Amino acid sequence: MNRIDLPPPAAGGVVLSWPGKAPPTFPPPKAPRLVETFEPQRLVTLQSAPPANRLYYGDNLDALVHLLDAGYAGRFRLIYADPPYDSGVEWTRKARLRTTLPRELNGVVIEQPQYSDVWSPGAYLQFIYTRLPLLRELLAEDGSLWLHCDHRRVHHLRCLLDEVFGAENYLNTITWRSQTARGAKVNAFFFPHSAHAILVYARNRAAPTRWRPQRRRIELSENEAAGLFMRDERGFFRTSDPGTYSFERLKQLHAQGRLYAPYGGEVIVDEAQRRVYASKGGNLGVKYYLTSLGDGRYQVERGVDNIWDDIPGLGTTPGEDLGYPTQKTEALLERILNAGSDAGDWVLDPFCGSGTTPAVAQKLGRRWVACDASYGAVQTTVRRLQAVCQQCSVSASDSRGDAEGRLCASPEGFAVYAFDEMRPPQESVGKIDLAITRIEGQEATIEVAVLDADIPFARSLAAVHPALDWRAAVDSIAIDPAYDGLVFRAAMADAPLHKRATVSGRYYVRAPAAPTTLAVRIVDIAGGESMTTVRIEA
Predict the structure, then answer these.
(1) Residue 407, pLDDT score
(2) Residue 327 contacts by C-beta under 8 Å, 6 or more apart in sequence?
(3) How do residues 13-54 score in pLDDT, each as one tens digit?
(4) Is the pTM of this model over 0.90?
(5) What is the pLDDT of residues 187-214, one digit of tens each?
(6) Residue 103 DSSP label
(7) Gyration radius (Cα) of the chain, Å
(8) Which of 47, 150, 151, 411 could form a disulfide with 396 if both were Cys (CB 3.0 to 4.6 A apart)?
(9) Comparing C-alpha atoms, which of 117, 135, 203 is closest to residue 349?
(10) DSSP assignment, residue 8?
(11) What is the DSSP string of 236-299?
């Protein structure tokens, strides 16, 4: 990789210092190892090229250096980085049983360490400082970096970004209301912390930076609309100054009933003078009507500024909660990706955590690269992406959208790469009982029935609650119908995202020509993994 030089400091600019500050240094490029792919209902072989979308398991410093060495410089239209915050917390992942049995069985079964956010003096800033030049080099000239942080380090990180990206490329600071203060927190000393900051920088503001203004839709009851808007026979409306509208355009708006005259006056059209005015004086207004949703509900669109209080945090959207710490909501990433990128653009998330960025990028038709050093994060992201990709595959074939009615734009799958040996799971699944049936037809199909899986903590709970079966302790099942013993190339995955949803245990996958080795992998709720293989000769 070529050397990366920082831009010269601006005259009179502020440069941040900290204990142990040193110029960024980078490791030599490493070649990651392909460990897994997922392409719904596609038969793949050793000769098949892996999908372009990719998830890296390992230190993102290695991943960023590798991407530059592999020719990705200047490719990413948008980078969303959600690094640790220097919170002083050892973050854990909470695992819950998937069951509709009594509520006491739906509590936390196990808490597992995921990542440490505890730093020695100066180490946190050096950690971020070392990665910023690499992120800058990966950005397209018209691209933008969105760096997510909170009150602890936002002031320091802005200084670092000014130094690495140039103060002239600062675009804005988004204040996102990530939570609403409740309980004892409302009495916090000198007010509770209820917001995060997102620092937005351009690679080259003069390019200019890709930008799509955003609008937000607000629903109002009839009483709320009546208190905020005027009303006529066509409904509720607001007015706006017509500005430099021509005489002909004003006549057209008047014919449509969209001009408003104040003080109870009328709109006068003077053909001789070629002017349109209000009979009782004052300025004319152009009417903009609220959309009626029926049942006394109305919708209004408004522009979005840099205070985002309309996107709830995870605490008020529990349906998205995957149990992974510091998870961000999909609505937040939807707005960011829609504002700074287009369909088909490359998006990078070097701290992907629970996988919100790649999941949203997949739905919005962006191409993506993501990375995380936590194996638990990689497992959570893989499971999430498996569910999204299968839904996108269905949407592409029958034009149905996802659960919220949005059309999934990209049925493409993804590949997983590792820079280090995959960490062995803390607790593995035991014996897996399968029933395999080959069904011949126009396309050969294999029916796979998972009859039982020996999961240690599920077995102990079943002694107390006999109705509890192995499915309650399973997060996902994936099947590779042509396993080569090296890379797990899944063609089908059962990865329910809803907390209480369970895997079905019965699947149909397209079959390659016999003989073939079919592999079934089960991941339990504690991150334990087990794979069993069956040789099918005919």
Answers:
(1) 47
(2) 314, 320, 321, 353, 354, 356
(3) 778 999 999 999 999 999 999 999 999 877 766 667 899 999
(4) no
(5) 777 888 889 999 999 999 999 999 999 9
(6) G
(7) 28
(8) 411
(9) 135
(10) P
(11) EEEEE--TT--HHHHHHHHHTT-EE-STT--EEEETTTTEEEETTSS--EEEEEPEEEETTEEE
Q: Which residues contact 258 (CB under 8 A, 6 or more apart)?
A: 286, 287
Rounded distance between C-alpha atoms, residue 156 and residue 90, angstroms = 22
Percent helix, strand and coil across the chain, each rounded to 5? 25, 30, 45
For residues 455 and 428, give the distance between their C-alpha atoms in angstroms, rounded to a whole number: 7
The label of the residue with tokens 């017509």 reads 242
Count the residues in the chain.
538
Q: What is the predicted pLDDT for the residue at 29?
A: 94
Task: Print burial letters for 148-169: b (CB count within 10 Å at least 16), e (below 16).
Answer: bbeeebbebbbbbbbbbbbbeb
How far lies 517's CA from each of 43, 442, 481, 508, in Å? 13, 21, 7, 15
Place of tokens 């669109």: 301
Does the structure show a pLDDT above 50 at 507?
A: yes
Q: How far apart, in Å, do the first and last CA atoms of the chain sit?
A: 50
- Rounded to whole angstroms, the Cα distance separating 348 from 66 reads 13
HEC-encoded secondary structure of 433-476: EEEEEEECCCCCEEEEEEEEECCHHHHHHHHHCCCCCHHHHEEE
* Kind of pairing between the strands at 108-116 and 90-96: antiparallel
State pLDDT tens for residues 138-186: 999 999 999 999 999 999 999 999 999 999 999 999 999 988 766 777 7
Q: Find how far residue 303's CA is from the centre of its chain.
A: 22
Percent of the chain predicted with pLDDT > 90: 56
The Cα–Cα gap between 139 and 152 comes to 26
In the sheet that 291-294 helps form, which strands lie side by side, from edge to edge? 215-221, 297-303, 291-294
The tokens describing 141, both together, are 């000239």
Tokens of 339: 């504002």
Partners of 149 in the β-ladder: 197
State the Cα–Cα distance between residues 313 and 310, nearest whole angstrom: 10
Contact 428, 473 (CB under 8 A): no
Which two tokens mark 287? 């009417």
Query: According to the model, what pLDDT value does residue 192 have?
Result: 83
Residue 58 CB partners (closer than 8 Å, separation 6+) = 32, 371, 373, 418, 419, 420
Phi, psi for residue 158 in degrees, rounded to 5: -65, -40
Residue range 431-458, pLDDT digits in tens: 778 888 877 655 678 889 888 887 766 6
How far apart are the C-alpha atoms of 385 and 390, rounded to whole Å? 8
Residue 286 has pLDDT above 80, yes or no: yes
**Residue 386 near residue 431 (C-beta atoms within 8 A):** no
Extract the tokens encoding 485.
């013993």
